[in-house]
């Protein structure tokens, strides 16, 4: 996943505090700082990146002014910064190398540092002409995260989209709070997953008795048309609508998906599934809209209660999938027009949106394997 760090540079403490607080509220929790690490630690659960050994991440390559200008020896193997980095890494520290790219020699040293560091932070005067592509290609396959130091949203977007993959992250040195929020929103957008949903023909709808049903209450408000991918078969998940609609029976609960019985799968980030019975407070699940766009959502609470159940079976191009849902008017799937349809009104011949996965699942992860589910 892409990420951002923040460096509140040249600010007095009050101004710096506002920027760091905005970063934390935007989901950015790594702060690069060399002056106020103790004060920063009191603002929230943050990771401080600095040039002291007790930092959460120790930064190598910062001189007195913190400008990342390194001494480049003729023989790069004799680099003091490379030696310091190697020693810190050997001692068990999480380490980052920070350097400004001014020449081909700087680029070569960056590649060497990146083969030892956990993070490689690169500073450039103009990312449109700095060879990020070369360094990304050189370090492909290495266990290092490449970060570009940027001053605004436009530079961040350029760095994150360089080549097919872009840098792993950006170090934003913002002039104002709006830049922090724009970068955070962009990262959330490019990290979101999309699932290709198809309309499946309903072939069976019938009550099957009672079972332990799971309600998933999230820390986010869902809109009409959003829900979760849930199903009895990992190869085929139904888009179960949130309780975001008003009903004559109950008030809307747009944070909730009445998802299904304890055995059912639910889609989680990274194209992984988990059993509904495993989900608990603090876990992450995916909320999905009728076009397959997703958001990562934190679970606030899970409720398991015995309720009457309904079997729903559907078929698409010879593939048959099933799920069990609570037999209640407020439980809805989404039809081919993107509209919620109650299971109480669902009938054979209706078309509902499902996600079909060609892969099998092993401990929730997609794998290339033949598997039979029935």
What can you tell me about this protein's structure?
Pfam families: DHQS, DHQS_2nd. Catalyzes the oxidative deamination and cyclization of 2-amino-3,7-dideoxy-D-threo-hept-6-ulosonic acid (ADH) to yield 3-dehydroquinate (DHQ), which is fed into the canonical shikimic pathway of aromatic amino acid biosynthesis. One of its GO terms (molecular function) is 3-dehydroquinate synthase activity. The protein has seven helices and 22 strands. The protein has 374 residues and is an alpha/beta fold. It has two domains: 3-191, TIM Barrel (Alpha-Beta Barrel), CATH 3.20.20; 197-359, Endonuclease - Pi-scei, Chain A, domain 1 (Beta Complex). An eight-stranded parallel β-sheet has the order 1-8-7-6-5-4-3-2. Strands 9-16-15-10-11-20 form a six-stranded antiparallel barrel. Helix 1 packs parallel to helix 7 (177-191). The radius of gyration is 25 Å and the shape is elongated. Residues 63-69, 360-364 and 366-370 have low confidence and may be disordered.
CATH fold-type name of the largest domain: TIM Barrel
Following the backbone from N to C, one meets helices and strands in this order, namely: EHEHEEHEHEHEHEHEEEEEEEEEEEEEE
Q: Structural class per helix/strand content?
A: alpha/beta
Determine the CATH superfamily of the largest domain. Aldolase class I
Mean pLDDT: 86
Number of individual domains: 2
* Oligomeric nature of the chains: single chain
Termini gap: 35 Å
Main sheet makeup = 8 strands, parallel
The tally of strands reads 22
Q: Under the CATH scheme, which class of the largest domain?
A: Alpha Beta
| Rounded Rg | 25 Å
Q: Give the count of helical stretches.
A: 7
**Beta-strand residue fraction:** 35-45%
GO molecular function: 3-dehydroquinate synthase activity; dehydroquinate synthase activity; NAD binding
Function: Catalyzes the oxidative deamination and cyclization of 2-amino-3,7-dideoxy-D-threo-hept-6-ulosonic acid (ADH) to yield 3-dehydroquinate (DHQ), which is fed into the canonical shikimic pathway of aromatic amino acid biosynthesis.
Protein name: 3-dehydroquinate synthase
Pfam families: DHQS, DHQS_2nd
């Amino acid at each position: 996943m892409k990420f951002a760090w923040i460096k509140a540079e040249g600010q007095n403490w009050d101004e710096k505090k506002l920027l760091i607080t905005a970063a934390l509220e935007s989901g950015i929790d790594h702060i690069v700082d060399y002056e106020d690490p103790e004060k920063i630690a009191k603002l929230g659960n943050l990771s401080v990146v600095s040039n002291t050994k007790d930092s959460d991440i120790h930064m190598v390559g910062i001189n007195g002014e913190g400008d990342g200008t390194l001494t480049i020896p003729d023989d790069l193997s004799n680099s003091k910064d490379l030696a310091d980095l190697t020693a810190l890494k050997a001692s068990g520290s999480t380490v980052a190398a920070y350097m400004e790219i001014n020449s081909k020699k700087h680029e070569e040293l960056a590649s060497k540092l990146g083969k030892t560091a956990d993070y490689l932070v690169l500073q450039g005067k103009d990312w449109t002409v700095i060879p990020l592509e070369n360094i990304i290609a050189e370090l492909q396959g290495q266990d290092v995260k490449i970060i570009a130091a940027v001053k605004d949203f436009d530079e961040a977007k350029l760095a994150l989209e360089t080549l097919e993959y872009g840098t792993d992250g950006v170090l934003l040195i913002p002039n104002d709070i709006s830049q922090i929020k724009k970068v955070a929103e962009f990262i959330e957008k490019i990290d979101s997953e999309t699932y290709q949903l198809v309309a499946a023909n309903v072939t069976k709808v019938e009550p099957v008795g009672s079972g332990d049903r799971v309600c998933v209450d999230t820390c986010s408000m869902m809109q009409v048309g959003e829900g979760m991918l849930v199903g009895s078969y990992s190869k085929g998940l139904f888009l179960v609508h949130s309780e975001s609609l008003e009903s004559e029976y109950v008030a809307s609960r747009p944070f909730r998906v009445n998802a299904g019985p304890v055995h059912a799968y639910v889609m989680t980030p990274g194209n992984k599934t988990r059993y509904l019975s495993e989900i608990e407070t603090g876990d992450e699940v995916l909320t999905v809209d009728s076009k397959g766009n997703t958001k990562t959502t934190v679970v606030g609470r899970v409720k398991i209660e015995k309720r009457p159940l309904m079997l729903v079976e559907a078929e698409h191009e010879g593939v048959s999938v099933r799920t069990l849902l609570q037999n209640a008017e407020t439980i809805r799937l989404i039809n081919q027009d993107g509209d919620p349809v109650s299971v109480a009104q669902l009938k054979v011949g209706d078309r509902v949106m499902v996600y079909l996965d060609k892969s099998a699942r092993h401990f929730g992860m997609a794998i290339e394997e033949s598997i039979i589910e029935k």
